[in-house]
Specification:
2 domains, six-stranded mixed beta sheet, about 25% helix, elongated
């Protein structure tokens, strides 16, 4: 840990607005110096060298971490599966589409292979609600994990078990026209209902219908908000 200036320094790297609350919580409730980076153009080795962080924590980031950064500074990413199960992209959507009701949030070391790094901690995560609600719920869990890792100087351990892999979902997979039951439709709408994700949709010849705020009723019917836009 960095002791030269008498205060440990950390970076929170995220592209999502809901993690701003996480940054504010850590800044206000710990005795460490925190820097928020939420723009990939500002996440450069020159910038990091000036900050000299002890650890870079990464709750949500869709870009590759460059080798010159993670080899010089410990980088810890948070992945929404019980690794080594579910390595790869779109973990939340892949889990819900497969019928999972809960998962583990894994804190792992960034390496040059996706989601293969050693594990610092795992915590339980409920998958109830919309994607936005789930992501916001992770803030409390991630803050506890970060503080635990720092205060207890937790060392990572190699992943155990047979790896399985998820493929990053594509926007066209949000089309719900081929789903066969109401629960599937409900799950697709809620698992895509978050900032920056392509919403569940249906299309006609002239219009696109995008769905959010889904509720599954006891009679298996669904109510949801719909945005109707004319196709280009």
């Amino acid at each position: 840990m960095n002791t030269r200036l008498g205060m440990q320094k950390f970076i929170l790297l995220t592209e999502k607005k809901w993690n701003i609350k996480l940054y504010e919580y850590l800044k206000e409730n710990t005795d460490y110096k925190w820097t928020l980076i939420n723009n990939k153009n500002k996440f450069t080795i020159d910038k990091i060298n000036k900050l000299k962080p002890d650890i870079i924590f990464i709750p949500h980031w869709s870009y590759f971490i460059k080798k010159d950064i993670f080899e010089k500074y410990p980088c810890i990413v948070f992945h929404m599966t019980d690794l080594p199960f579910g390595r790869g992209g779109s973990p939340l959507q892949n889990l819900i589409a497969r019928g999972f009701k809960s998962t583990k949030l894994s804190a792992l070391k960034v390496t040059d292979s996706i989601d293969t790094g050693d594990i610092y901690l795992k915590k339980n995560l409920n998958l109830k609600g919309s994607a936005q609600e789930i992501f916001e719920r992770t803030n409390n869990i991630i803050s506890e994990m970060i503080i635990n890792i720092i205060r207890n100087s937790i060392k990572p351990k190699p992943q155990k078990g047979k790896p399985t892999y998820f493929q990053r979902r594509k926007p066209e997979q949000s089309n719900i026209s081929q789903l066969k039951n109401g629960e599937e439709v409900y799950n697709y709408i809620r698992m895509l209902d978050a900032e920056g994700y392509p919403k569940a949709f249906l299309e006609t010849k002239y219009f696109k219908y995008e769905f959010t705020k889904a509720l599954l009723k006891s009679d298996k019917t669904i109510t949801a908000n719909v945005r109707i836009s004319k196709k280009q």
